[in-house]
Write a structure and sequence with these properties.
about 170 residues; globular
Length: about 170
């Protein structure tokens, strides 16, 4: 395992633990909401909002874990048994696809038109707070650029790692 892959694996362990914590937090928050609404006849205003924010963070962190494990959809499976040109093409296409998707997301997370930082998604959320919890929305919106950076790390690790061994299965 190369150094980049070890770093990616460490980040993945943290992301998986946080995604699991978010999932548990969602379940507990919803149970608390149900108890307040039906048991106490006094619903809490903040529970639905907290569950939503945990879903955003947990879903994006979980998606990064799925990408690390190569559970993203593929059209053609390429293994070490594939011709070398096909292996190189597969890695180039993976890199191109990830960068083409993530580059605009990262750009607009931090900048708006004309590289204007104040028109970026994060800056606009920095000046707002959530209604129920009073949390700065930049904390919630940070899930997007953080996940993009994690996905880029995982992509670099996948590119630096060998392709999987052929399984011997025929389709």
């Amino acid at each position: 395992m190369n150094r980049l892959d070890r770093i990616s694996a460490g980040v993945d362990r943290v992301c998986l633990a946080l995604a699991k914590a978010c999932l548990l937090g969602i379940a507990l928050t919803i149970l608390f909401q149900i108890a307040g609404r039906y048991g106490l006849r006094s619903p809490y205003a903040w529970t639905e909002e907290l569950a939503r924010y945990l879903m955003v963070w947990g879903g994006l962190l979980g998606a990064s874990c799925a990408f690390r494990r190569a559970l993203d959809p593929v059209i053609v499976t390429v293994t070490q048994g594939s011709p070398p040109a096909v292996q190189v093409l597969a890695k180039v296409m993976l890199a191109a696809t990830v960068v083409i998707f993530l580059a605009p997301v990262l750009y607009y997370a931090f900048f708006g038109a004309g590289w204007n930082f104040q028109r970026g998604f994060m800056w606009r959320n920095f000046n707002r707070s959530s209604a129920g919890l009073g949390v700065n929305l930049a904390v919630i919106g940070a899930a997007i650029p953080v996940t993009c950076l994690i996905l880029l790390l995982h992509c670099a690790a996948r590119l630096a790692s060998p392709l999987p061994q052929p399984t011997g299965k025929t389709s």
